[in-house]
Amino acid sequence: EAGVAQSPRYKIIEKRQSVAFWCNPISGHATLYWYQQILGQGPKLLIQFQNNGVVDDSQLPKDRFSAERLKGVDSTLKIQPAKLEDSAVYLCASTRGASGTYNEQFFGPGTRLTVL
Amino acid sequence: DQQVKQNSPSLSVQEGRISILNCDYTNSMFDYFLWYKKYPAEGPTFLISISSIKDKNEDGRFTVFLNKSAKHLSLHIVPSQPGDSAVYFCAASNTNAGKSTFGDGTTLTVKP
């Protein structure tokens, strides 16, 4: 089975510019997560979707970050405008089941964002 | 307030010896724990997990131990192999919430 796909793999932008990341989870996976991983730290959850609904976006900086999963399949994460501190790897992950079940997460390769 | 802590940023062991990676947590609501392995330029991949109703889970060379009273878990790799060199993340979750909180990782280097 194909893994979680993410694009682009790398992105360099200047501060105050906008950027968007795309994720296609494993086919049939109901739950999708976006994480931010700053160098030297573990992944930090930004938003969790179950199908096309938001389960948890408590850690998403909503003044500049937005995410959607319109048809319950692929998802986009947007940053507008970007700040220097947004430089990080953005990881997308998915799980087979719904929230509340024991499911390991399958991660994509990530998008490395550099904000200059 | 970091709820999951991996206090050793790095660990170096000789091939064939045991690697022990440690993880501490503070939230008593966590009831499921996972270890992920991450190679450079790749996303983390699931390695092994343990439910809070158990104190040990084994899968081949990998064993995870859970001490609930101490809020501590450890990952044992025996014997260690050079291909095990990677960053290992500990993650803890509450089943009802369905999300995981990650530690900052331990970089394991296995020397031939």
Structure summary:
The complex is a heterodimer of chains A (116) and B (112). Helices cover 0% and strands 47% of the residues of chain A.
Description:
The complex is a heterodimer of chains A (116) and B (112). Chain A is an all-beta fold and 116 residues long. Chain A has strands spanning 5-7, 10-13, 19-24, 31-37, 44-50, 53-56, 65-68, 75-79, 88-95, 106-107, 111-115. In chain A, the strands form two sheets. In chain A, strands 2, 4, 5, 6, 9, 10 and 11 form a seven-stranded mixed sheet that branches. Chain A has a four-stranded antiparallel sheet with strand order 1-3-8-7, with no helix packed on it. In chain A, a hairpin with a 2-residue loop joins strand 5 (44-50) and strand 6 (53-56). Chain B has 112 residues and is mainly beta. Chain B has no helices and eleven strands. Chain B has strands spanning 4-5, 10-14, 19-25, 32-38, 45-51, 56-59, 62-67, 72-77, 86-94, 99-102, 106-111. In chain B, the strands form two sheets. In chain B, strands 2, 4, 5, 9, 10 and 11 form a six-stranded mixed sheet that branches. Chain B has a five-stranded antiparallel sheet with strand order 1-3-8-7-6, with no helix packed on it. In chain B, strand 6 (56-59) and strand 7 form a beta hairpin. The radius of gyration of chain B is 13 Å and the shape is globular. Chain B starts with a strand and ends with a strand. The mean pLDDT of chain B is 95. Chain A binds chain B through residues 4, 31, 33, 40-45, 48, 50, 55-56, 91, 93, 98-102, 104-110, and chain B through 4, 6, 32, 34, 36, 41-46, 49, 51, 89, 91, 95-105.
